[in-house]
């Protein structure tokens, strides 16, 4: 139980990697505030997590022994993130760990000159600015506490380029920039900030994630072909599972990683080493 007594805010927790991280954190003794938009977003061409999926995540975490608060909110809205922070303070008296996980994969599938203003801004607003907004709301509490850990879920798309995903790649590279800048700002105050970069993660039906499916759809290739291509490009020759990301997020968030800050940690089967 590496997270006993830790109070954790996780964004994008209704399904997928966010759900896997929530369950792993609950199993390690953490108490949770789970936030998700719980609705579709205008301009994102696929369904996002629902309120009911958020409740499912919360239910599984409670079964694992966690106290859990559910918040419907959009990371594009500072007021929603302030309310989630307030919920953590009211319920648990503080926030020890922030997991910036909420993100979208599309609109994508085109080169940079074919991206509209609206598409570009939506991607950066959610995948980059959303993490900065959450950090901005949570950091004052961590400064008062004299401790804290922020885990930004970037991507291998934050470390290398991918064709036809210019806004996603830019946002995820930007998130690594934010990680490094904030790590320096807050290290003297006892707060760590790190980036975790998953490779292509299998959509686990139990977790109801669908990003890999959506990425394959943007590229107009069948999901199985996309999975095969990625598995072949990873020296371990197997796709990353959401739980591989979650166990690394547990370590990174925990005091076991107390000397790790400003780090960019791939969980990609060696994809970015090549
Ligand atoms: N799946 C992959 O292969 C992969 C690889 C690398 C990085 N990632 C990153 O991991 C994170 C989670 O991805 P996933 O695969 O679980 O995707 P997913 O689409 O299955 O889940 C994303 C969750 O974030 C929520 N969300 C989206 N926009 C939001 C907003 N504006 N406010 C609040 N919540 C919002 C959705 O409702 C959904 O529940 C994302 O940041 C993604 O970029 C995923």
Mind sketching the topology for me?
Blueprint: E1 7-11, H1 16-27, E2 31-36, H2 51-63, E3 68-72, H3 78-92, E4 97-100, H4 117-145, E5 148-153, H5 166-186, E6 191-198, H6 211-218, H7 223-233, H8 242-253, E7 264-267
Parallel strand pairs: 1-2, 1-4, 2-3, 4-5, 5-6, 6-7
Helix pairs in contact: 1-2, 1-8, 3-4, 4-5, 6-7
Task: Name the ligand types.
Answer: nicotinamide-adenine-dinucleotide
Shape: globular
Question: Which ranges are low-confidence, i.e. pLDDT below 50, for 5 or more consecutive residues?
Answer: none
Q: Describe the largest sheet.
A: 7 strands, parallel
Helix percentage range = 40-55%
Strand order of the largest sheet: 3-2-1-4-5-6-7
The fraction of residues assigned to DSSP E strands is: 5-15%
Number of strands: 7
CATH architecture: 3-Layer(aba) Sandwich
- Given the structure, what is the number of helices? 8
Structural class: alpha/beta
| Total separate domains | 1
Question: What is the typical, i.e. mean, pLDDT?
Answer: 97
- Name the helix and strand elements from N-terminus to C-terminus, one letter apiece: EHEHEHEHEHEHHHE
CATH superfamily: NAD(P)-binding Rossmann-like Domain
CATH hierarchy, class? Alpha Beta
- The CATH topology is Rossmann fold
Ends apart, CA distance between termini:
35 Å
Radius of gyration: 17 Å
Distinctive features:
single chain; 274 residues; alpha/beta; Rossmann fold; 7-stranded parallel sheet; 8 helices; 7 strands; 44% helix; binds nicotinamide-adenine-dinucleotide
């Amino acid at each position: 139980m590496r997270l006993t007594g830790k109070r954790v805010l996780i964004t994008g927790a209704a399904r997928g990697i966010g759900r896997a991280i929530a369950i792993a954190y609950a199993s390690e003794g953490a108490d949770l505030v789970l936030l998700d938009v719980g609705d579709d977003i205008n301009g994102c061409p696929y369904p996002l997590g629902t309120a009911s999926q958020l409740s499912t995540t919360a239910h599984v975490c409670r079964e694992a022994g966690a106290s859990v608060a559910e918040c419907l909110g959009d990371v594009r809205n500072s007021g929603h993130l302030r309310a989630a922070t307030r919920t953590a303070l009211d319920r648990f008296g503080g926030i020890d760990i922030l997991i910036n996980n909420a993100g979208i994969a599309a609109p994508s599938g085109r080169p940079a000159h074919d991206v509209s203003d609206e598409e570009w801004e939506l991607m950066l607003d959610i995948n980059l600015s959303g993490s900065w907004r959450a950090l901005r709301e949570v950091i004052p509490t961590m400064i008062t506490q004299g401790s804290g850990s922020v885990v930004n879920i970037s991507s291998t798309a934050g470390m290398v380029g991918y064709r036809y995903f210019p806004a996603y790649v830019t946002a995820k590279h930007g998130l690594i920039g934010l990680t490094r800048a904030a790590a320096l700002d807050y290290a003297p105050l006892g707060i760590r900030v790190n980036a975790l970069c998953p490779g292509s993660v299998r959509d686990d039906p139990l977790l109801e994630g669908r990003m890999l499916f959506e990425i394959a759809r943007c590229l107009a290739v069948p999901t199985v072909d996309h999975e095969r291509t990625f598995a072949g490009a990873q020296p371990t020759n197997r796709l990353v599972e959401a739980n591989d990301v979650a166990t690394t997020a547990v370590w990174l968030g925990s005091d076991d990683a107390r000397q790790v800050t400003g780090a960019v940690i791939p969980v990609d089967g060696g994809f970015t080493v090549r």
